[in-house]
Amino acid sequence: MAIIEVTVIPIGTATTSLSAYVADLHRMLESAEEPIRFEMTSMSTIIEGDLEDLMNVVRRLHEVPFIHGAHRVSTSIKIDDRRDKAASMEQKLRSVQEKLKG
pTM, whole model, 2 decimals? Predict the structure, then answer.
């Protein structure tokens, strides 16, 4: 399972506020047909699932601001694709928390 961190930034909008665009992105993720899990943070969104599914989802996320009036969109992604053992958002955090205890 892969984990992607994605940041979608609409440019050329009528306002400096981006929360309406973020809400549109959230709706798209909630309705995604792919078997994904996601977590929104204050600065980006983290999505986990099959890499091919994630890339399809990111492509659609990139299009959302255009559909809602943005004239330009900048999308940044980071991919963590671990293939030697199963990984998840929770597992990564749990691993760090265990090390903090010791």
Answer: 0.87
